[in-house]
Write a structure and sequence with these properties.
The structure is a homodimer of 480-residue chains.
Chain A: H1 4-8, H2 19-32, H3 45-52, H4 56-69, E1 72-73, E2 81-82, H5 109-114, H6 142-154, H7 167-181, E3 190-193, H8 196-207, E4 213-218, H9 222-230, E5 234-241, E6 244-245, E7 256-259, H10 273-286, E8 289-293, H11 309-312, E9 318-323, E10 335-338, H12 344-354, H13 360-371, H14 374-401, E11 406-407, E12 415-420, H15 426-435, E13 441-442, E14 454-459, H16 465-479
Parallel strand pairs in A: 4-5, 4-7, 7-8, 8-9
Antiparallel strand pairs in A: 1-2, 3-10, 5-6, 9-10, 11-12, 12-14, 13-14
Helix pairs in contact in A: 2-4, 3-4, 6-13, 7-13, 8-9, 14-16
Amino acid sequence: MDDLLPGMLHLVRDGGETLTRQLTDQLRGLITKGRLAPGQRLPSSRELAQSLGLSRNTASFAIEQLAAEGYVTLSAGRRPVVAEGLSLDRSKSPPRSGRGGGARIRVSAWASSLQRSVWPPIHKERPRPFQPGLADEREFPHDEWSRCLRRAARNAPLRRDRPINHPPLQEALLRHLVVHRGIKAVANQILFVPTAQAGLALVANALLEPGDHAWVESPGYAGANVAFEAAGAIVSAVPLDSQGMVISSHKETPRLIFVTPSHQYPTGRLMPIGRRLELLRFAEATGACIIEDDYDGEFHYEARPVAALQGLAPSPRVFYLGTFSKATYADIRIGYVVVPEALIDLFELAQRHMGILTSITIQDALAEFISAGAYLGHVRRMTRLYRGRRDRMLQALATEAGNRLAVETPAGGMQLLARCRPRTNDQQLSARLLEAGVVSRALTRMLYHKTEERGLFLGFAAWNDKEIDQAARILGRIVR
Amino acid sequence: MDDLLPGMLHLVRDGGETLTRQLTDQLRGLITKGRLAPGQRLPSSRELAQSLGLSRNTASFAIEQLAAEGYVTLSAGRRPVVAEGLSLDRSKSPPRSGRGGGARIRVSAWASSLQRSVWPPIHKERPRPFQPGLADEREFPHDEWSRCLRRAARNAPLRRDRPINHPPLQEALLRHLVVHRGIKAVANQILFVPTAQAGLALVANALLEPGDHAWVESPGYAGANVAFEAAGAIVSAVPLDSQGMVISSHKETPRLIFVTPSHQYPTGRLMPIGRRLELLRFAEATGACIIEDDYDGEFHYEARPVAALQGLAPSPRVFYLGTFSKATYADIRIGYVVVPEALIDLFELAQRHMGILTSITIQDALAEFISAGAYLGHVRRMTRLYRGRRDRMLQALATEAGNRLAVETPAGGMQLLARCRPRTNDQQLSARLLEAGVVSRALTRMLYHKTEERGLFLGFAAWNDKEIDQAARILGRIVR
């Protein structure tokens, strides 16, 4: 053995790897391949060093490393021994390469259900008109933002005691929400989460028990449906009239109601005060909670934005959900939830258990961006820009598609719903548009009750006039 | 009415608010307070403008805003009418202020259980010795990092097609993990999540069905227990011997096994290759999956770090979990999971459904930080520094506490376990230390089976020699 082992090793003196590493790796390889058998004695590190012409240290380090990893066993005054039980019996193992290998892993029912989910729509390519949900990030003051971010990162060492939700951002955002959205809260009711979707999951997990009923709008935002279903709830689709969700006493009493009162998703309709109060009275009477998703409430084109439900509610049962990804840029990955004051500690604990925390560096940069007025300035500039684009879009669609599409004028937001004739195959239409380079979302993908409504959901905010006109021409050609 | 209304309004011409806004807010107030009754006719906007001495536009905007919000109803050629159904019947409502108000909200069983959870330990104050889990952030190259971050933020507009997991970071991290941790994977098997805890929740939700069995180490990391319990699993605590988890056939067959083989949490022990292979064989035989949490595997002090389980596994059933929060700084909020290749698409969909996405700007900054060598340079420097601090800590504890504490020398990582005599009240001891300014975690808080083991979990990485000596003196005084 003392003679054999050196012949099995091939150390390269001017290779990229140290001799210690080469020796360790090669010995480990001989053991795992079975060329050095369990129980076999190895030379001592002194003998090994001599026969290989290495320093004693090099050989010792290698042997000790293998002992630390458990490949060899050391005992005082004796030569190292190859450890027992190191075979994995690979003959029985499936091949580990290829996509088939992992298919044997049984996933949960929830994970299986994801494969059938139509949410979220994923466009892996560069965004194209009229992909909904996008802000025009070309207009965002990236330079100013990157200065805020750098400053916040440089100041990080000064912030050693760190709550998970940054008080300066809570205060800056609260001032904004009170003035512009009519929120009634104290600053630490605002919790920051990586995405609005994580905020939905947070509220759903904290309130819903398996078997509870939850109401969503139909048509509506499927992200709510999937969050509630993941929490085990039975989701009921509630149809809309011109004022929004039709509060019906026919359905099972809900534990949680999801609404988008500022600009209903996807119709863009504003829920008037009467329906808002009706909804709040219903929640009071039944003990239901409400998630008010104000996803793009910043952008309102007809008069001023309407005050949020949260500020109207007589008791704290509205969870106000917002995001910075529409009013700044999608990649910022900061959403927020305004929770009832009595539940702050519980929700912060839930954030930690779910691991949905966001960087204080980014929260601090955002606090400066808001406090310096850059946020409101950007929102105001974008509101003017997007209003113009909405009007351009309405005009372009009227010109190109005429009476084939009935377009609802949205009161605000970044997208609109163009209704097709009943029973049109809007998914097929959307697929044909995609082939021609125009992105849309079929209304039937957002409907959860039986109806003959059909349409296309189209984003206008991220595209300039030329892009809008061009894409409208393509759309017109295809719908005619 | 035409005469009455002006008397109810008090507009200030050089106030901070525009006249339109004052008029709208005051009219809305009169309606919500019931001073203008449902069904009551208001003056036309022309009449209102005249009687108040306002421009016609100002009065029109106010009336239209209230109509948009639903407070008044407009019909062609007629005067505006106060809308019906605007009362909330506040007499029946509870007061909305105070922490008692929200207590009426019924939360889920999971949310209730959080209030009894001892995880995570939360220290709201400035970190103090020997708080476990902390890196020395004073040593982190914040300036270099902030330059990477700024550059990444400025380049954001150039990145319009954005996968949720950034390929340049996947590639940079993979090169690091292959060389330093023995991972076998392709780059897009690496998914980035806001925290390691979110990574645990991701794997738990994707694999566990309610009633499934999951194994955790005892003592061990409670974040795994809570993630598995949240997914409905029955968690079994598996005791350790000197090699780590004792694989027993007495317990129910697990669906998922959580281990920390690099430096067991909290004992700091390394799982030798024999136990690693035994665990892998057991997983193969039973169809179980393994989460290998390599939370501080970067810092290894005896010889080289041992190769990860993930790279040894004969088939893809190991989920390798890591975080940048130990090797960079806690606030970076980027964890990662290496998932089996066949499950990449499913897990990315699960990330979207759970909303656990992280900013590509940060991912891009981190890719540059790694590629430029700054990451490895920092890890190497910290490894030398932390090894010295570990040794200082061992020495200081021996001097100050003598045989009252039996300290295990950890093979790596940022903390160590100091065992007390059996049946010591380690929670009381930890509380007394906290009063004296020394933070620790009682071993019994991390034990999930019946045993007389007692001890204190102490972090050494974030403290310099002087801080270590001072805190050890306090600790010595209290344990003696």
